[in-house]
């Protein structure tokens, strides 16, 4: 038991009076009983704080909110702050220490309220002779609102210790004394987990990047159907959040799922039964185009603070005309995407994909190669894409054009998808080494693609802004500075891409891909 343990449950023999006596040890203990208190836990849709072993809880009293960021289980407190409204993103936290740490964990994800609690608190304040508070202990009596039961369900009473700065030694002494007497027991489950268990919520059940534990020998068409159905589920899980438009990560996960389904359609079309692929892919392409326009705007809105640093101080405020334009564009494109996602065409698409993917589970009359073991199909697809990438890389030189680098980015992206999804079929260590090499190339290509897209889009935005609104001279200058910066950054990114291409296509890596994925001729192909 360490002094980091802050959350306990009481033994049967511990009353409030006996707890007061154990705490006091010659000092005054003052008792305060609160009125009704509301409490909730903040986390992202995909439970990123939970996955990091942290809890962000909010206690609402009157017109103020008390935020406590702590470690799960022990309850060790990282930070406590009083704010006027519940924050929705990491950027809403004014604390200079908390904001970057929180942003590193949740990115731009929206913070949602999980589990609405109501209850009361009994506070025991340990005071010195000058009536200065040295330590606080809270006995929390919480109940959680269960939608299934339409009533509040009582949770186990928990006891929280709050040491005050400068008096940590007193906290350690009192805590150790009470624990050694067997009057306090560390919580078995964090209060967050207890509340979620009552609500029948499984935190962390969702992921936008599923890992597939595939087994060799399975029929390819069956495995492909399972994978495609999983990405369809991710689309369905994120469509409501994407429509709402508040949290860009919903749209991000939605788009990634769409792209991966289309990637499989492109690579494995000859294996799929019937003639539905072209129609489904046409509809998916339409959805992707509608969503990508908003995703790009979300990225530029999120990058705006970085954009400000790319122009001189005189022009930074003048760049806000761009920010207003981006927000206006997003609302317009979001309205258009909502119409698309509410349309019969989208409903028909998801229903058709659902029934089509499920039909793969029963292997009947199928195209040649559909029943082949999945490891053969995976090997062929990975090695085919790798050879395509190497050939395209060689064709870049000596003077690579932006369009060819972007095409290489798309090919590398497809290679990364396939290596990630099928990784469990191949020797782990060797596969991780090749994924690491591909990841280095993909990082450079992504950096180039992002800055190239920014350069092109910003030029387009500037043209449209000058046509649709009266722009001050200083705003034009600010935009031109930003565009010039992106052009310089693109040039630097191109150098990194060429260096990494040379590394990724060297003989050693080519031989590794060949030995891992190239099948002997007698094994046939898909």
Describe this structure in words.
- This protein is α+β, with helices and mostly antiparallel strands.
- It is 54% helix and 16% strand.
- Strands 1, 2, 3, 4, 5, 6, 7, 8, 9, 10 and 11 form an eleven-stranded antiparallel β-sheet that branches.
- Strand 4 and strand 5 form a beta hairpin.
- Helix 6 crosses helix 12, helix 12 packs antiparallel against helix 13 and helix 12 runs antiparallel to helix 16.
- It is globular and about 85 Å long.
- The termini are far apart.
Describe this structure in a few short sentences.
With 526 residues, this protein is α+β, with helices and mostly antiparallel strands. It has 16 helices and eleven strands.
